[in-house]
Design goal:
This protein is mainly beta. Helices cover 0% and strands 51% of the residues. It contains no helices and eleven strands. Strands 2, 4, 5, 6, 9, 10 and 11 form a seven-stranded mixed sheet that branches. Strands 1-3-8-7 form a four-stranded antiparallel sheet, with no helix packed on it. A hairpin with a 4-residue loop joins strand 7 and strand 8.
Length: 111
């Protein structure tokens, strides 16, 4: 299993970023996928999840109505669209499949 995140970077408060996670080594179209994050000095926390079909989505209260998780099973990729970013969204964002984690991509929200 390989999960490779990309799309992190620096954004201003109120701005947007789109993260991608390219997956390989398993049957992606059958797998529920999720995103988690770990902010500076904080524990890793759940952000969002999507069912294998894409029909069901789940969000942490802290990102609901601002972030959108989606997937493209033809491309073996899961996305996290992040809008209305806040400084407290600053974290390393990880793609997750069960016990498997990507290497993470850093998102910094700052003026």
């Amino acid at each position: 299993v390989q999960l490779v995140e990309s799309g992190g970077g620096l954004a201003q408060p109120g701005g947007s970023l789109r993260l991608s996670c390219a997956a390989s080594g398993f049957t992606f179209s059958s797998a529920d996928m999720s995103w988690a994050r770990q902010g500076p000095g904080k524990e890793r926390e759940f952000v969002a999840a999507i069912s294998w079909s894409g029909r069901e989505e789940y969000y942490a209260d802290s990102v609901k109505d601002r972030f959108t998780i989606s997937r493209d099973n033809a491309k073996n990729t899961v996305y996290l669209q992040m809008n209305s970013l806040k400084p407290e969204d600053t974290a390393v964002y990880y793609c997750n499949l069960g016990v498997y984690w990507g290497q993470g991509t850093l998102v910094t929200v700052s003026e």
